[in-house]
């Protein structure tokens, strides 16, 4: 199907040559109906575009351009670009030869060749993307380095959000959050608290001590508390019930900053889900109820500025100032949005989901959230569900 | 009141089931017995999930910020999209009726101050950090969503306003239109994402006049 569709009409020569195409700019999509031009419209436009001020072209040049266009046409047909206006463009080129409009002929031929080249490039790209998509799908459910996950997502998704910071992409291999995770590993295994036990008996939903993929399935319902809990709340639960800390001890109470036990532990636990597809369970009625209430909250406008989360996160490629906003409706993009803990370059700190949520309510000029509250967990249930099936990037790096 | 209704529903639910589904009960209420809308309201107002008692800049507490007025409620459509045409027309009528004009007519203020106000995102934030309006003026956040001048990067949630006055002119009709959109954007665009800067008391008359000058004054860099 894809092969019979006409690529978008090139808007400028530089775009046609493919040399200067901005990689943030969406590729012409085969399904973009608004972008399909009728042949005659296309040809009329091309005729109008071709400048007539170049004189010195010879018949030989024109003829060799036509030959080249025909050659490319054949290659394109071999790749499956069957329905294309290039045949007509080549005909046009040949038809103006007798009247010595060699420049025109040359340019028609050039347009035809580029048109086919573009179509072939498009197909090659889409096939590559499909292949990497398949590979990424096959890998879901196993550990993958955060940078590889992100690269995989970028390869199969055109997203200005995913690619907005070249600098972050480059620095990702040295993400400072990795050090935070390593500190967390030590803390996790250390016998601590009044009860002098480690967190290795803590059940994050997949059994005591099982961390692989556990975070990708949070928030979830826990039998022992009768509640839907997110990572932070579950961690508090274990620190209090297993290790015997009091909720007011700094180990439990201090939630933010690189130096906090919480950020270290959360980053470590989460890092064990890198590459796993988000898959918060919806089997228990409470899990479903929380997710559904979170959805209502996501679209609920209130506050001094009438904002809802959806005001800023339901369209693709929109920006607040220079920041490209992630779209909740595009899971390939949203998975990065909800991949916390992440090192926030602007804060020079590793930040949690709860921290991000608090920040967004603050921006909305609504009331501040209470970490670990059911309201906050309902929102996290919904936002994780919206990324379902896409691999988590943990720990991530953000602006 | 809501709480009472919830526990009543809960009791009925339990009675009907006769075997209490203990595990499905979080604290004293059963979330699974509520509609998503009921649960969302419960979570926001009754579950200690939000710091509702914090004082807010306009007086009162953050609780009132979370209560939806008619427009906010009508324009919140779960899953996205907009209400039907009839409702939209009603919203825009309501919005037009909310607009209060300056006593001396709509005048353009000082575009230089307007430029700063259009850029600034300060104001009305509460919680872990609370904006102090004594220290800093309340800005309009316009650049968050609009490209306006060409010297700074603006957002793209709203249309570009570069050259707004040059293109639209400064007739009384345009001044009124611009005033209306800033005062209550829903008058022209029902259920728009743009905040109601006048109707909600976000910006005062002087701030609106200055920002309007930034958009419309031929001297303003927006129109160069």
Automatic annotation (TrEMBL), chain B:
| One Gene Ontology molecular-function label | electron transfer activity
Q: Which Gene3D superfamilies match?
A: Cytochrome c-like domain (1.10.760.10)
- Tell me which Pfam families the record gives: Cytochrom_C (PF00034)
Q: What InterPro entries does the entry give?
A: Cyt_c-like_dom, Cyt_c-like_dom_sf, Thiosulf_SoxX
Where does the record locate the signal sequence feature? 1-26
Keywords assigned by UniProt, alphabetized:
Heme, Iron, Metal-binding, Signal
Location of the Cytochrome c domain: 109-219
UniProt name for this protein:
Sulfur oxidation c-type cytochrome SoxX
What organism does this protein naturally occur in?
Answer: Halochromatium salexigens (Chromatium salexigens)
């Amino acid at each position: 199907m894809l092969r019979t569709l006409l690529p978008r009409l090139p808007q400028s020569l530089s775009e046609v040559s493919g040399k200067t195409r901005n990689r943030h700019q969406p590729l012409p999509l085969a399904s973009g109906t608004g972008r399909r031009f009728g042949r005659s419209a296309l040809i009329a436009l091309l005729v109008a575009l071709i400048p007539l001020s170049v004189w010195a072209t010879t018949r030989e040049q024109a003829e060799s351009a036509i030959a080249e266009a025909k050659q490319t046409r054949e290659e394109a047909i071999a790749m499956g670009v069957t329905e294309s206006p290039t045949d007509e463009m080549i005909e046009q080129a040949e038809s103006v030869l007798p009247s010595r409009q060699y420049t025109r002929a040359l340019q028609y031929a050039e347009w035809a060749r580029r048109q086919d080249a573009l179509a072939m490039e498009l197909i090659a790209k889409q096939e590559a993307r499909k292949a990497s998509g398949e590979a990424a799908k096959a890998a879901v459910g196993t550990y993958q380095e955060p940078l590889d996950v992100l690269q995989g997502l970028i390869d199969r998704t055109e997203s200005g959000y995913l690619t907005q910071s070249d600098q972050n992409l480059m620095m990702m291999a040295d993400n400072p959050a990795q050090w935070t995770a390593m500190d967390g590993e030590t803390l996790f295994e250390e016998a601590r608290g009044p009860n002098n036990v480690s967190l290795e008996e803590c059940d994050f939903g997949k059994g005591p001590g099982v961390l692989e993929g556990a975070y990708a399935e949070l928030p979830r319902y826990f039998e022992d508390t009768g509640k839907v809990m997110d990572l932070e709340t579950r961690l508090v639960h274990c620190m209090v019930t297993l290790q015997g800390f009091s909720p007011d001890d700094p180990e439990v109470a201090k939630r933010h900053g690189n130096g906090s036990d919480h950020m270290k532990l959360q980053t470590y636990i989460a890092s064990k889900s890198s590459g796993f597809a988000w898959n918060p369970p919806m089997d228990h009625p409470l899990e479903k109820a929380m997710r559904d209430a979170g959805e209502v909250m996501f679209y609920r406008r209130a506050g001094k500025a009438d904002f809802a989360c959806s005001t800023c996160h339901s369209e693709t490629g929109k920006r607040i100032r220079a920041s490209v906003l992630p779209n909740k409706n595009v899971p390939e993009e949203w998975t990065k949005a909800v991949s916390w803990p992440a090192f926030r370059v602007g804060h020079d700190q590793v930040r949690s989901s709860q921290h991000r949520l608090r920040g967004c309510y603050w921006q909305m000029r609504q009331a501040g959230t209470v970490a670990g509250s059911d309201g906050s967990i309902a929102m996290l249930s919904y936002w994780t569900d919206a990324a379902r099936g896409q691999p988590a990037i943990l720990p991530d790096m953000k602006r | 009141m809501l709480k009472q209704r919830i526990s009543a529903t809960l009791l009925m639910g339990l009675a009907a089931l006769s075997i209490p589904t203990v595990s499905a009960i979080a604290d004293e209420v059963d979330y699974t017995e509520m509609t998503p809308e009921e649960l969302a309201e419960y979570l926001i107002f009754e579950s200690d999930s939000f710091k509702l008692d914090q004082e807010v800049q306009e007086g009162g507490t953050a609780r009132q910020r979370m209560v939806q007025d008619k427009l906010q409620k009508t324009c919140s459509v779960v899953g996205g999209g907009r209400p039907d045409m009839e409702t939209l027309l009603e919203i825009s009528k309501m919005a037009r009726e909310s607009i209060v004009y300056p006593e001396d007519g709509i005048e353009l203020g000082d575009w230089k101050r307007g430029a700063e106000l259009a850029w600034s995102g300060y104001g009305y934030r509460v919680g872990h950090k609370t904006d102090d309006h004594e220290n800093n003026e309340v800005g309009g956040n316009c650049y968050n969503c609009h490209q306006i001048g060409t010297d700074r990067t603006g957002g793209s949630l709203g249309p570009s306003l570069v050259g707004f006055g040059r293109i639209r002119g400064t007739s009384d009709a345009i001044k009124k239109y611009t005033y209306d959109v800033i005062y209550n954007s829903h008058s022209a665009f029902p259920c728009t994402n743009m905040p109601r800067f006048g109707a909600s008391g976000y910006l005062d008359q002087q701030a609106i006049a200055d920002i309007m000058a930034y958009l419309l004054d031929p001297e303003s860099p927006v129109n160069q």
